[in-house]
Amino acid sequence: MKEKIIAKASELFLKLGFKSVTMDDIAGEMCISKKTIYKYFCNKEVLIEESTSAVHKQVHEVIDTIVAKDFNAIHENFEIRESFKDMFKNNIDTSPLYQLKKHYPEIYHNVMTHEIDQCTHYFKDNILKGMREDLYRKDLNIDIYVKFYYTLIFHINETTVSEREAQKIELEALEYHTRAMATEKGIIELEKQLKKITT
């Protein structure tokens, strides 16, 4: 039952917002009593913590699945972006990270500390892969480029109110990040991926 409550709460938080969804809403959606929810979660904050943790686990499972398909480094980044777009397509227009930072800053801080660690690892692997494939330049300072990119992505998500707008800017950031690192071969692959989005 605990997992079912987390799954339903995650869905509602992402769809309607962390602030606006109440314990009554979750109980009503699941046709259970509010007392049942409180049996597993002493308050809404604890439920939000567990829900965000579950969503981030899901996000990283999606990333791992795409990485396992062994696309080239640039194609991989575009596939991941596309998966996230599908994953969050039923959201309200407000970015989930923006809401979390605004209404539950402590939970947001805990989530981001963990997220930066995981993203650093993923971005680094992607850059090394792109270098091996001659898509990214060999002279890159990998740690600096990793830091540039996650700073850019997290800043977009935590300061852009609209989820739709955040996704649009994220695509620009991905293009900017890729062009900054790309070889001539990488630019050809980037243009190919951008064309797939616009056609």
Short account of what is shown:
The protein is mostly helical.
Task: Walk me through this protein's architecture.
The protein is mainly alpha-helical and 199 residues long. It has one domain (56-198): Tetracycline Repressor, domain 2 (Orthogonal Bundle), CATH 1.10.357.10. It contains ten helices and no strands. It has helices spanning 2-16, 23-30, 34-40, 44-68, 73-87, 96-103, 105-132, 142-159, 163-181, 184-198. Helix 1 (2-16) packs across helix 4 (44-68), helix 4 runs parallel beside helix 7 (105-132) and helix 8 (142-159) packs antiparallel against helix 9. The longest helix has 28 residues, at 105-132. It is elongated. The mean pLDDT is 89.
Brief descriptors of the model:
single chain, mainly alpha, 10 helices, elongated
> Helix content range of the residues, please?
over 70%
The figure for the number of domains is 1
First-to-last CA distance = 44 Å
Runs in which pLDDT lies below 50 for 5 or more consecutive residues are none
**Average pLDDT reading:** 89
Strand fraction equals under 5%
Please write the CATH class name: Mainly Alpha
Major beta-sheet overview? none
Q: Tell me the series of helices and strands, N- to C-terminal.
A: HHHHHHHHHH
Rounded to an integer in angstroms, the radius of gyration calculated over CA atoms is 19 Å
Instruction: Indicate the CATH architecture.
Output: Orthogonal Bundle
Compute the number of helices. 10
Please state the overall shape, judged from the principal axes of the Cα atoms. elongated
Within CATH, the superfamily carries the name: Tetracycline Repressor, domain 2
**Which topology does CATH recognise?**
Tetracycline Repressor, domain 2
